[in-house]
Amino acid sequence: MDSNQNNVSGARGRPRSNEVHRNILDTTLYLLAEVGVEKLSIEMVAQRAGVGKASIYRRWANKEALIVDALEQIKPEFNMPSQGNLNGDLYELASHFVQRMNTPLGKQMLSLLISTLAGSSQISEAFWENHSLPKTKEISSIIDRYRQNERLSEDANVDLAADLMIGFIMYQLLFKPPTEDLDSSLKQGIEMIVKGIRKPD
Amino acid sequence: MDSNQNNVSGARGRPRSNEVHRNILDTTLYLLAEVGVEKLSIEMVAQRAGVGKASIYRRWANKEALIVDALEQIKPEFNMPSQGNLNGDLYELASHFVQRMNTPLGKQMLSLLISTLAGSSQISEAFWENHSLPKTKEISSIIDRYRQNERLSEDANVDLAADLMIGFIMYQLLFKPPTEDLDSSLKQGIEMIVKGIRKPD
Amino acid sequence: MDSNQNNVSGARGRPRSNEVHRNILDTTLYLLAEVGVEKLSIEMVAQRAGVGKASIYRRWANKEALIVDALEQIKPEFNMPSQGNLNGDLYELASHFVQRMNTPLGKQMLSLLISTLAGSSQISEAFWENHSLPKTKEISSIIDRYRQNERLSEDANVDLAADLMIGFIMYQLLFKPPTEDLDSSLKQGIEMIVKGIRKPD
Amino acid sequence: MDSNQNNVSGARGRPRSNEVHRNILDTTLYLLAEVGVEKLSIEMVAQRAGVGKASIYRRWANKEALIVDALEQIKPEFNMPSQGNLNGDLYELASHFVQRMNTPLGKQMLSLLISTLAGSSQISEAFWENHSLPKTKEISSIIDRYRQNERLSEDANVDLAADLMIGFIMYQLLFKPPTEDLDSSLKQGIEMIVKGIRKPD
DNA sequence: ACGTAACCGAGACGGTACGTCAGGTCTTATC
DNA sequence: GATAAGACCTGACGTACCGTCTCGGTTACGT
C-alpha cells in the first residue's frame, strides 16, 4: 500500500528522504483531523510540511493515494491476548478496535473506506476477499475455540455471529454521536450475540 | 430538508418553477449514478438539466446541499404490513430497506451520510436524535409487540436488538460486494438476533 | 434619440408612466455620477429607482441605449447672443460648452461618445455628418460674420479654425485635470486662433 | 506600468515565462482589435493564447489592468529628426503620432485613456503631470528653437501653441471618420497655428 | 575526488470547477 | 396593458486546486 519505491537496487542520484516521507504523512494526518477529507488540499499539505508539491507527487500518484496511505497508518491490528472466556475475548477485540477508531481520524478513515467501496464493486470485492473475510474468519475462529467451554450450539453459524458483531461495532462507531457511552452497549451487544449462538440450555 | 422556500404566502415576483426544481434534482440523481459523488460538478448538472447555475444556487447554498437533497429523495420509508410473526416482520423491514439501498445511488447516499456524520459531531448528534433513535424505537416497538407470542425474555433489551439488526444490515450493505447473496444471510442474522432475546426454554 | 414611444394614438391599456420614465433617467444620471459608466448596472438602476427591470427594457433596448439617453440630457445647446466681437462670441460659445461639460457626468458623456466613435466607423461617420459637421459650420458661420470687421484674411479657412477651436476645448476638458484654470487658457487659445486667420496687419 | 515582477533578484521557484507574458499581451491586443474593449473577456484571451486564466491573473490584477498594459505597448514615441523648418518638424511629429494611432487599436487606447481620466481626477492629475505636460514641453521646445528663424512673436505663448496642436490632432483622430483625409488638414492646421504665433510682419 | 543523476523547496504552467454577478427575457399578481 | 418583483438562461468574473514542469541548489552514489 506504500509507495516509497525508493532506490531499491542500482539506484543513482540522491535517495529519497525518509524524513520528508514521514513529514508528509504526518502532516496529512494532522490536517485530515483538522479540516477533514473534503477540504484537504495537496497545496495545504505541501506548505504546512514545508515541502515541494513535487516531493508529494513523486511518492503518491494523486491526492487519494496519499490520503489512503496516511489513513492506512492508523489501521488497528488485533492480536489480543485471550481472557479465558468468550465474552471477554470478544469485548477485548471490540474495545481495542473502537478505541483506535473512535477518533475524528478513525471515523474519516472508515467513511473514506466505505465511500471507496460504494464507488467500485471491483475494489469492494477485492477488499472483501483480502480484508473483511480474513477478519471475519479470525473472529469466528476465536468463537470456535469456545464451542465446548461455552456450550455453543453444534450448528451455530460462527461466521454469521462474527458479522453480526462487526456490523454492530461499525454501526455504534459511525452513527452514534461521540457523547454516547459505547463501552457498555458494546458489552451488552456481545452478550446478546453470544446468547444467540449458545445452546438453549 | 428541502430548500424550495418560495411562494409561501405574500409572494411577489415570478415564483420559482417546480419543474426546474424537479429537473435539477432528477438530473443530479442521474449524474450521481453515472459519474459518482466525487466527479459530479454543478456545471455538469446545470448543462445537462438545461438550467442556469444561478437557478441551482438560488435553491441550494452549495454543491453539498444539492447532493444531500437529491439523495434524500431515495430515503426508504418502512411502514410494512405485519406478517404475523417476529422473524417475518423483521425480515420484511430489512429486505425493504436493502432493496432500496442496494444500488449505487443508495450506497452513495449512505456513505455520504456516514462521512457527514464523521465530519461533525454536531450533525451527528442531531441525526442520531432525529433519525436513528426514532428508527430504532420503531423497530424495537415491533419486537416488543411479540414479547409474549414469541416468548421473549422479560429482561430482553429490545433497543439493543434493534441496533444489532440495523448494524448488521448496514454492514452487509456497505462491506459485502454486490455479488454476495444478501437475502439469505439477512434471514439468518435476524434469526440469530431473535434467538438472542428469546427465553432459554 | 428618445425612446418614449408612448401610446401615441390608438393606445390600449395602461399608458406608460412619464414619472417612471423620468425617474429612470434621473436615477441613471445620478448613479452615473456616483459609480461611473463601467460599474453602472441595470439592476442597480432598477432597485434605486424602485422600478422593475422590465420597465427599463420596455423603453430602452439595452444598457447602452439607456446610458446614451441619460447623458443626452446634459448635452449643451449653444445659441449664444452675440457680443459684438469675434473673440467675445467664440469665448462665450466655448465657455458655455465648458461650463456644461466640465463635470464628472459631462466628461463621462464625452468619453463614452469617443469610445463609441472609436468602436464603429459607421457610427463615427454618421455622427460626423449629423453632429460634428453642422456644429463646425455653425461656428465657422459665426467667424465668417466677422470677416470684414475683424480684418480676416480673404483666404482664411474658417472651417479649419472652427476645428482648431473645438479640438482645443476638448483637449483642455478631457486631459487637463479639474484643478487647472480652464477659463484663461480658453481666452488665450481663442486669441491665438483668431490671430492665425487675421490679415497680417 | 508593467506587472512582470519576477526574477528580480532572489527569485525562487520556476520563473515566469516571458514567452507567456508576451503571448498574453499580443493576444489581448489582437482580440482588442477584433472584438473591441467591451466584448473582450479574459476567458477568451486565455483560450486564444493557449494559456490558463491563472497565468493572466498572476500578472495582472484584473481585466482592466491587462487591457491598459496591452494598449500601453502601442504608445508612440516621437524623437523625430529635424526637417530644418518649423512647419516641417511639427508636421513630422503630428504625422508620426497620427500614423501610429489612426487604427482601431490606437483609437481604443485613446478612448480608454480618456475614460480613465474622466473617471478619476487623481489619475487625471498624475497623467497630466507625468505625460501630458512633458509632451507639451517637448513640443514647445521644438517651437522655441525656431523663434528667430521663423520670426515668431517675442511674446508668443509656445506652450499654448503646443496645446492647440495636440488638441487639434486628437480631435481629428477621434471625431473625424476614418474616411476623411487627415493628412492635408493636419498640414493646414499646423500652418494656421504657426501663423498665430508669428510676427505680424 | 568528483561528476552526475535524482533529489529538494519553490512556484509557474494549462486546466477545471467553484460560487457570484449582471445582462436581457419571461412570468407572476396587482393596479 | 403597464407595473414591481423576481425567476429564468447565459456567460464572464476572479479564486482555488489539480497534477505537471522548471528553476537553482543539494546530496550521495559510482567511477
Structure description:
- The structure is a homotetramer of 201-residue chains.
- The first copy, chain A, has helices at 18-35, 42-49, 53-57, 63-72, 86-101, 104-119, 121-145, 158-175, 182-197.
- Chain A is mainly α.
- Chain A folds into two domains: 18-71, Orthogonal Bundle (Arc Repressor Mutant, subunit A), CATH 1.10.10; 86-197, Orthogonal Bundle (Tetracycline Repressor, domain 2).
- Chains in contact: A-B, C-D.
- Chains C and D meet through helix 1, helix 6, helix 7, helix 8 and helix 9 of C and helix 6, helix 7, helix 8 and helix 9 of D.
- Chain B binds a DNA duplex (31 and 31 nucleotides) through helix 2 and helix 3.
- Chains A, B, C, D: Keywords: DNA-binding, Transcription, Transcription regulation.
- Chains A, B, C, D: This is AcrR family transcriptional regulator.
- Chains A, B, C, D: Residues 41-60 bind DNA.
- Chains A, B, C, D: Residues 18-78 form the HTH tetR-type domain.
Largest sheet of chain A: none
| CATH A-level architecture of the largest domain in chain A | Orthogonal Bundle
Protein structure class of chain A: mainly alpha
Multimerization state: homotetramer
Short account of what is shown:
With 201 residues, chain A is mainly alpha-helical.
